[in-house]
Each structure stands twice: as C-alpha cells, then as structure tokens.
Specification:
Shape: globular
Number of domains: 2
Structural class: alpha+beta
Number of strands: 4
Helix content: 40-55%
Largest sheet: 4 strands, mixed
Oligomer: single chain
Distance between the termini: 38 Å
CATH superfamily of the largest domain: VSR Endonuclease
Radius of gyration: 18 Å
Strand order of the largest sheet: 1-2-3-4
Amino acid sequence: MGFAFSRGSAGEGARRADEGPTMKISSKRDIAKQLRHQQTIAEQKMWWLLRSRAFNGYKFCRQYLIGPVIADFCCRKRKLVIELDGSQHIDNQDYDQERTRYLQEQGYRVLRFWNRDFLLNQKEVLETILSVLLENPHPGCATLSQLTRWARANQDLPSPAVTREKVLEAG
C-alpha cells in the first residue's frame, strides 16, 4: 500500500527564499542531500550540537529518509525524530500531522520545535530532547546486553519479533 502526502506551497523539498536557481531533483535521496547543503540557521546550530555523538553519546543523522518522509534529525537507536519547523509550517500543519502520524506508525517518537523557540531557548529544547532520550528506550528497542541475557535465559537467539517487554520480563 503506497503512502502519499498532499503538499501545500511549501514543505519538504520546497525552495527556500535564499536558494539559487532550481535544480532537477530525481529522488527523495537527492532532496535529502540538497537539504543537507541548504540548512536553515536553526538546523545548522542543531546539527552542530548533535553531530559526531556530541550529544550525550547519541548518534544522530540529519535529513534522514524514513519511507517517503525526510526527517530533519533522527536518532535511529532510540527511534526519535526531531523536527525544526520554520514559518512555512504554519500554513502546512495538516501536512506535518500526516508526516508525524506516518513516523509514529513506523515506531518513531517525534519532537517538533519551532526554529525561533530553539534559537531563543536552546538549553530548554536540548533538555527536552535529552529527557526523551533518557526515558526507557522505545518499546521496540532492546539493548545488546538485554538481548544477550534474554538469549541465555531462553537458550536460543531472539527472533526479530522479540520486543523490549519480553526481554525485560526475562530479567
């Protein structure tokens, strides 16, 4: 079953006011690459804080493809997506809700911040992100040590369908 987003005049892949001439884009991967090279000031600052495991050791990707969605920032291990929204998102809130719903259906938690809020309150935004990362891991994620304990207890290697709850029950 395919998934399509309806788009307004701006949104994922839309031209920014400071962009030069348009460029032919043939795939979502090309769009993600272009967006990495044309970040907003807020995205640049956030990436500087998140990159190279600088943020409490968590690895983040930027402009990361998840199905048809390009997430601004993604911590794959914790299945957390961070979206920084500029003023163009005011008119596209339905589109953003569709994207959030899709990401949640894929098992991701989504945090959205306005660019302005991030730029003016970086400490509070980063504390919010860290508190979500430090919460119990996403239900679908189990650590390697938890999987090892589970495998020893069950004398079997866990299948991909093993959930964090089963691992925690095994102790």
